[in-house]
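Lecture notes, unit on binding sites. The following record was shown on slide 14. It pairs a sequence with LTUXU72L.
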Amino acid sequence: MSTLCVSGGRVLLPDHDVVRADVLVDRDEGTILAVDEDLDGDETLDADGCLVLPGLVNAHTHAAMTLLRGIADDKPLDAWLQEDIWPVEAALTSEDVRAGTELAAVEMIRSGTTAFADMYFEVDAVVDAVERAGLRARVGHGVVTVGKDDDAAREDASESIRAAERFDGAADGRVSTAFMPHSLTTVDPDVLREYTAEAREAGVPVHFHANETTDEVDPILDEHDERPLAWAREQGLLEPEDFLAHGVHTDASEHDLLAETGAGVVHCPASNMKLASGMAPVQDMREAGVTVALGTDGAASNNDLDVFDEMRDAAMLGKLAADDASAVPADAVVEMATQGGADVLSIDSGRIEAGANADLAVLDLDAAHLTPQHDLVSHLAYAATGSDVRHTVCDGQVLMRDRELTTLDAASVRERASEHAQALVDRA
Ligand SMILES: CSC[C@H]1O[C@@H](n2cnc3c(O)ncnc32)[C@H](O)[C@@H]1O
Ligand SMILES: [Zn+2]
């Protein structure tokens, strides 16, 4: 057995106690062997003066949208998608997606994210990038049927099922998949129902956008006289491993339904603020027993992939939404970015405990904005940023050591992504 010892730091335990301990990792199995004092490994990762925390989980993004960062800002969702984003995405190639996903991987590794969910196109290129980067991901082909005839709509949904079947378990098990209909209003209801049934047969979960804006709620209310998530349930959605992004405009009946079914919600506070989609009732969801994770959404509506920002935004916005300064506290957002994200992605990460996946971030506390250190959970939620991350470990492998990436050449990834981004925009 080959081992790695993350030594000399303070460790964030699953109950959010912080203790001085080493973390011993089985590099072959990619799991945590022990959390204790005075451990030794074949290789050491110095965590002196650092906080060792579970690798963060970005539970909803469109990774290759890094190429579209800054092409269109300051618009609401519908206009942004239809006038700016979709016309450019129509010109995307597989090599663009590879370059954009690698850029996203650099950004995520640098900011301590070790797992993400990706809904996009050209899944083979996404999987290649995840494999090369050493990250963990649940990936899928996003289906949009608006503007397509029935054959094209079904071909798009079939592509999503095929990709989910083909890539589940890729990259030594670090890649899992889902059927990914874009939303309840951009996929034809017959297609949604029939291919969700196929996803069940294939044994993969379903990930989709829901209740992001009132424009996604009102047509379903008008047409079916019921809330979108009740309608979604009737179409076969909301099984325990399913997860939806946003859930901004959800009511108490929908929170109860989510809690009952076990389907998760990925809260994307920065994207929801930037597109002025609204304030998700996160405190209500958590009180109802819904599993809530955090996501950045794509880099064109955020505009970065730093989950530390998302923790802070979730705490701040949660208080405004509830009109209560005690709502969505530091402890809650740290849980949402770690264990909550892992639960939503159905991966055994998000906690530092023997037996769990060895997905870790090591945060350097030697900084003015992290001084003094009364409460490190408070610092994670309110003061730290992705650039404070010193080392990142996924599946027992060191992906960043002393701020140097080990799997990707950051400079050439950035150069290639810039070239692809420019050529894409010129072509579109
Ligand atoms: C069909 S692949 C995914 C699709 O989703 C688009 N997208 C990016 N951000 C959002 C968002 O906040 N709501 C809805 N759709 C979004 C992305 O551009 C792709 O086209
Ligand atoms: Zn999205």
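Take-home: Residues 3-54+350-405 form a domain with the Urease, subunit C; domain 1 fold (CATH 2.30.40.10).
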